[in-house]
Design a protein that fits this description.
Layout lengths: L2 H9 L4 E2 L6 H4 L12 E3 L4 H14 L2 E5 L15 E5 L6 E4 L4 E5 L4 H10 L16 H7 L6 H4 L2 H4 E8 L4 E4 L12 H5 L7 E9 L6 E9 L2 H12 L4 E8 H11 L10 E9 L1 H6 L5 H16 L6 E4 L2 H12 L1 H6 L5 E6 L5 H13 L6 E7 L4 E7 L9 H17 L18 H20 L25
Parallel strand pairs: 2-4, 3-4
Antiparallel strand pairs: 1-2, 5-6, 6-9, 7-8, 7-9, 10-12, 10-13, 11-12, 11-15, 14-16, 15-16
This protein binds flavin-adenine dinucleotide.
Protein name: FAD-binding oxidoreductase
Pfam families: FAD-oxidase_C (PF02913), FAD_binding_4 (PF01565)
Family: Belongs to the FAD-binding oxidoreductase/transferase type 4 family.
Length: 480
């Protein structure tokens, strides 16, 4: 055992894994595209242990990759062979719900565990992502995760009231119990949100809980084409109590149907929109208990008329079972795609007026690199957000890095050309690092680099994420 490993082992009281142990789940990402190894995986339980780890790594010039559930889609949680993983999986403390409906939890608590706690106190989390079983609050904060209810509750940033963070020099920034009004200088909490582990290690998250829904109805629309759906988006947004508008191409529903071994509830040609309308006890009382469907019906009629939908093109799911069955065709999309191969994943958004044309052109962009590529598209309609997966031809497990880069370049050029963003929710990570400069321009890129340097001058935290890896550890031998 070298002295680095010995010192590290002491910081976490033996909760250290090294390459001889089974560390694969920490070194390969969810998509399977990013694979590596690490010098070690440290699993601290307390903020003090995180501080000690940072100090040992600082002394030995070893970089740190913070990791939560490892469900990120851009390779940001995957270590290099010259770094260690700091996994927050053992940091799962749960605080009390405070009078302002916030709760402070350990960064390693999963979103579904937080949901259980919230529900036991009569609240909800207000964040819905399909990776909730594994994604952690620290990862969610660090990626500013979005998901299906952003149109109602905002991204993670809107739900985070405070954070505790260990910086690259081992300082603890404690902003857990912030006041509703506090205009004292720079908002450090906001800076750590979405920083993808490049500015500090989040150890605790203070979360704003939301009122639970008393009633929910899900409505599935099948539009003849994406153009019809895009034309109806302003009307879909007017559905009373709407909190989610999701989309998928009919042709991609077939893959999910195969994966779930389920029969699609309607024709799989055209473009599907999954709408969810909901009301809380309070909004229910305010509306005189009129009923969700009664309120939604005139708007549904308007959508049917303006998009020329048939009676078979609209399904209203009222019971919990019907709702689950319908939503499964959207929620199981990522799993179904991964079951078909290792995709090149992109998560982009465009101005709504370009949504239909981009949707129609993505296939061609991917096929300009590989005519046999298979593209799957779905996403969050309200924000014109696309999750794009480009799968290699059947029989090929995975694209080479070179071809994957070419595919990314072709699709992202289309997105930037339409005035869009190369990352709507998943972040930049390692996968999109070389695009950040083009997305944000010279002035913003330089300012972001200066922020990184002032927080982390030695490039200890997540080198290679957001910016090229220029860390000391990048070219040196294994520490002694
Ligand atoms: C099936 C599926 C569906 C998904 N759906 C959505 C979706 O709808 N919306 C969405 O936004 N994302 C989605 N994601 C992506 C992913 O779940 C989110 O990005 C999530 O927030 C990552 O959380 P995590 O704990 O797994 O983080 P990780 O994957 O472990 O890490 C992600 C990034 O955050 C950093 N990080 C993690 N923990 C910390 C910490 N404590 N301190 C500092 N940095 C840290 C890592 O270094 C890395 O850069 C989905 C993923 C899957 C697999």
């Amino acid at each position: 055992m070298n002295s680095f490993e010995e010192e590290l082992r002491k910081t976490v009281d033996g909760r250290l894994l090294v390459p001889g142990d089974d560390i694969t789940r920490y070194t390969v990402d969810w998509t399977g595209r990013w694979k590596s190894t690490a010098l070690a995986v440290a699993r601290p339980r307390t903020v003090d242990e995180v501080v000690d780890i940072v100090r040992v790594c600082q002394r030995h010039g070893v970089s740190i990759v913070p990791q939560g559930g490892n469900t990120g889609m851009v390779g940001g949680s995957v270590p290099s062979e010259r770094s260690i993983v700091v996994s927050t999986e053992s940091m799962t403390a749960v605080g009390k719900v405070s009078a302002d409906s916030t709760i402070t939890v350990g960064a390693g608590l999963t979103l579904s565990a937080l949901r259980e706690v919230a529900q036991s106190h009569g609240f909800e989390t207000g964040l819905h992502i399909a990776s909730a079983e594994s994604a952690t609050l620290g990862g969610i904060a660090s990626t500013n995760a979005g998901g299906a209810r952003v149109m109602r509750y905002g991204s993670a940033r809107a739900r985070i009231a405070g954070l505790r963070v260990v910086t690259a020099n081992g300082d603890v920034i404690d902003r857990r119990q912030t006041l509703p009004k506090d205009n004292t200088g720079y908002d450090l909490v906001d800076l750590f949100i979405g920083a993808e582990g490049t500015l500090g290690i989040v150890t605790d998250v203070t979360w704003r809980l939301v009122e639970p829904n008393a009633d929910t109805v899900r409505i599935l629309f099948r539009f003849g084409s994406v153009d019809h759906a895009a034309t109806s988006l302003p009307t879909l947004r007017r559905l009373p109590g709407v909190e989610a508008l999701e989309w998928a191409r009919g042709q991609d529903i077939l893959r999910v149907a195969r994966h779930l071994d389920a029969v699609p509830p309607m024709d799989t040609s055209g473009f599907w929109v999954f709408a969810e309308v909901a009301e809380t006890e309070r909004t229910k009382r305010d509306s005189g208990d009129a009923g969700l469907l009664t309120a939604a019906e005139p708007v549904i009629e308007q959508i049917i008329a303006e998009a020329d939908l048939g009676t078979d093109d609209v399904i209203v799911a009222e019971s919990a079972n019907e709702q689950r069955a319908v939503w499964a065709f959207r929620e199981s999309m990522s799993e179904a795609i991964s079951a078909d191969g290792v995709p090149v994943k992109l998560d982009v958004a465009v101005p709504i007026e370009h949504f239909a044309s981009v949707c129609n052109d993505v296939d061609a962009a991917a096929r300009s690199v590989d005519p046999d590529s298979r593209t799957a598209l779905f996403g969050h309609f309200a924000e014109a957000n696309f999750h794009i997966s480009v799968l290699p031809p059947e029989g090929t497990a995975q694209y080479s890095e070179e071809v994957a880069d070419e595919i990314e370049d072709a699709v992202l050029a289309l997105i930037l050309g339409a005035g869009g963003t190369i990352s709507a929710e998943h972040g930049v990570g390692r996968a999109k690092q070389r695009w950040l400069h083009r997305q944000r321009g010279q002035a913003q890129y330089e300012l972001m680099k200066q922020i990184k340097t002032s927080f982390d001058p030695d490039q200890l935290l997540n080198p290679g994420v957001l910016f090229p890896d220029t860390s000391i550890a990048h070219n040196e031998e294994t520490p002694a």
